[in-house]
UniProtKB/TrEMBL annotation:
This is MOSC domain-containing protein. Residues 18-168 form the MOSC domain. PROSITE patterns: MOSC (PS51340). It holds the Pfam family MOSC. It comes from Streptomyces cupreus. InterPro entries: MoCF_Sase_C, MOSC_domain, Pyrv_Knase-like_insert_dom_sf. Gene3D superfamilies: PK beta-barrel domain-like. It comes from the Bacteria. GO terms for molecular function: catalytic activity; molybdenum ion binding; pyridoxal phosphate binding.
Length: 180
């Protein structure tokens, strides 16, 4: 099972979107070098207000580029980095991965998937009505969050557009992703 990195993005200040970069450096245990969300403890502002000492399970945000194709069909234009992700991929069913799946990004970097991104109201601030496109219902009725997955960095390294993405599934019974 594999895919491709199509874009990498980071921002040193809090903002909804993140500018695309030629490369980003992932640092084990921290996240994307120079990104505002990098750190051992949580850096998401809302979560910091509740408990700033909780571990940062949101060091790297990955999003599948196929989502952009899907929302385009509904009349929205979204490009890599605009929804705040650090790594945009193609060819990987990120939302179908279990907790603990490992993604080898490029030649060296490894991230471990911790859960789903919780889409926030800022998505509608970015483009009115877009929130309904990234939060939907599955065929059997439950809410389905489609705004990417969160991960922690196990092995650091440089990640660039065009790099391969390889998936390693965890042993044992797989736990479905939940919001982190």
């Amino acid at each position: 099972m594999g895919g491709t990195v199509t874009a990498v993005s980071s921002n040193g200040t809090y903002s909804f979107s993140k500018p695309n970069r030629d490369s980003v450096r992932l640092i084990a245990g921290l996240g994307v070098e120079g990104d505002v969300h990098a750190g051992v403890t949580v850096k998401h502002r809302f979560r910091m207000e509740k408990d700033p000492s909780q571990p940062n399970l949101r060091q790297v945000h990955l999003m599948h580029e196929e989502l952009f194709d899907e929302v385009r069909e509904a009349g929205f234009e979204v490009a890599a980095g605009q929804l705040g992700e650090n790594v945009t991929t193609r060819g990987i069913d990120l939302l179908g991965l279990p907790v603990g799946a490992r993604l080898l990004l490029g030649a060296q970097a490894v991230v471990e998937v911790t859960g789903l991104r919780n889409p926030c109201a800022q998505i509608d601030g970015f483009q009115k009505g877009l929130m309904k496109q990234v939060v939907g219902r599955g065929e059997d009725g439950p809410v389905r969050f489609k705004a990417g997955v969160m991960s922690i960095v196990l092995v650091g390294g440089v990640v660039r557009p065009g790099d391969s993405v390889k998936v390693e599934l965890p042993d044992g019974p797989h736990r479905p992703l939940e919001i982190v």
